[in-house]
Structures are given as structure tokens and as C-alpha cells.
Amino acid sequence: MKKGRMKSVFGIWCLASAFLLNADAAEQKAEKKYIVAIDAGHQGAGQDMTGTEPNAPGSDVMKARMVSGTQGSFSGIAESELNLSVALKLEEELKERGYEVVMTRTEQDVSLSNIDRAEIASEAGAHITVRIHANGSEDPSVSGALTMIPSPANPSVGYLYESSHELAQYILDAYCEATGLQNDGVVETDSMTGINWSTMPVTILEMGFMTNQQDDLYMADETNQEIMADAVADGIDTYFSKKGSTIE
Predict the structure, then answer these.
(1) pTM here?
(2) DSSP H or E segment with residue 208
(3) What angle do helix axes 161-179 and 222-243 make, rounded to 10 degrees?
């Protein structure tokens, strides 16, 4: 074979190899699934709630391992039941959208502390954790949804503040737009054990006030719960569309 032809063949081989490598990398990227941990807050009745656990890694502050949550003043539904119902709908919706989903619980009869829940997400290699809760107040006129995240000064997870804030904002905005519930904003807190033990961006969604008639009856409706779950998924979609290139 002549020298010139050899160079030409070699060049074509190099281009073909580069194309195949790029195509393979693109395929791997396309096949990559983001892992979402969903924590349906609280648990069913009958669990031993007398134990305590550290509020944060290395902290001397001890908090209850488990608490019972609130209850619908008008629907009569326990918060733990509402949280689980929405979380299961969110799980289904996210899987349909191609996410891998890790659930901290799928039933009421569990005994999981807040540290346990954070560790489930960490051990699964989740990219984010969304904790599903509902609010309560002594004032029945208080209403609306909010999200909670760690503050930048949090000694354990302050480094997660920026990503957690973005996640919380996207979810809350999508949620309130879809449901029509009042947007009470993103709240910074360093007192939540489940947040303080997280190793990935995390937010608590307080879906509404179960002590407010409008919020409570809205959230109790199964059709509305589908809207709620879809909206949370929309917020998660937005988060990964904005942050995807920076997530390993």
C-alpha cells in the first residue's frame, strides 16, 4: 500500500474511532438516571417514640427519634397517611419520567428515625432528598405551602445550602402554581435532624396546613394529590435540567 493511502486510511480510522467513542459517551450520559430519595414524613401509630438521637453529627443536642405529626382538623386524616399517599404518587410519576427512586418507607407500620431516613438516602447514592410533610398551626387561618432547607451557617450541611435552596425553590414554585395554594417561601432552619444528617441537597416540602380548612380538604382529595405529586416532579425536573451538567 502506498504511503499516502496508508495515511488516508489511518486518518479515517482515527475519525471513526473518535466518533464511536463520542457516541458511546453520549449514550452513557443519556442512559444515566438521577436517583431521587423520597421521605414520607412520620409513620403510623403504635411505634415507640420515647427514644432520642443527636440533632446533628457530633451534636450534644438530643431530639426525639420519631414524632407522630399532625392531623387534618377537617378531613380527620393523619399527616403520616397524607404524606405517604402523596409520596407514593410522586414515586410513580418520577419513575414514569425515568428517575430511579428510593423510598424511605412505603407503608405506615415502620420504625424509622430521622437519622435512619437520611442514611437510607445516603446509602442509596441519591442525588437529592425530598421530604414530604404537612403543616399545622394553633391558628386555623394560617395557610399555604413552604419548603425548608439548611442555612449557609449550618455547621453540618451548610455546604449544601445553595443546591438545596435551588431545589426547594423550584419545587415550591411549581407546587404552588399547580395547586393554587399560597406560597409561604423557602425557610432556612438548622433544627431539623433529617436535614442535618443529609449528605446531598435536601428539602422538606410542607404541602399545606392541615389545621386550615381550605388547605386540609384540598390535600385530602385524591385527584388533588395527583396534581400535587406531578407538580413536585415538575420542580425536580427543573432542578436537574439546570444542575444536570454539574452532577456526577
Answers:
(1) 0.87
(2) strand 202-209
(3) 140
